[in-house]
Amino acid sequence: MDVKPILAAAAVPIAPSIGPAIVTFAGLDIPILALGLSTASLLLARFVAPPSLEKMTREQEWALTALLIIILLLVVTGQMPLVGTGKPMETGMAVVTGIGLGFSGLLVVRLMRERVVAMMKAMLGSAKEE
After folding, report:
1. What φ, ψ does residue 123 adopt, rounded to 5°?
2. Which parts pass through the membrane (predicted)?
3. Which phi and psi (to 5°) does residue 23 adopt?
4. How far apart are CA 95 and CA 99, in angstroms?
């Protein structure tokens, strides 16, 4: 008697999808849901964050928010050096990153400035001889 194995092929339904999870634009893999939710969380965090100790004009606030969105794009897509694994971020971590950038945006920009200044001093040498 010849016995053939039974295959259960139709046991798992496929979940419907609205669109692609990752879109490639100009060679950059962009996780659509992660970027959208993290941008929304950054904007909401900027709205509810306590006012900064430094007074900024409305234009400066808008410029800082735009700069933070650019930084968030680089971080979520995995293009920011020293952050992540070089691959696009998952949605949960992207949202947390957006909230963190929204609350501490000016501090993040200043820390990045200090890192670049230190890198330039290491590359070019300090103006002050020690």
Report:
1. -75, -45
2. 30-49, 61-80, 92-112
3. -110, 135
4. 6
Alpha-carbon span 47 to 116, nearest angstrom: 29
What is the rounded distance in angstroms from the CA atom of residue 88 to the CA atom of residue 11? 31
| Pairing mode of beta strands 28-31, 22-25 | antiparallel
**Spatial distance between the Cα atoms of 19 and 13, rounded to a whole number of angstroms:** 18
Amino acid at 73: L
Element (H, E) at 22: strand 22-25
Q: What is the pLDDT along the chain (130 residues), one digit of tens a residue?
A: 666 555 555 555 666 667 678 888 888 888 999 999 999 999 999 999 888 888 889 999 999 999 999 999 998 998 887 676 778 888 899 999 999 999 988 888 888 889 889 989 898 886 665 5
Q: Which two tokens mark 123?
A: 């590359």
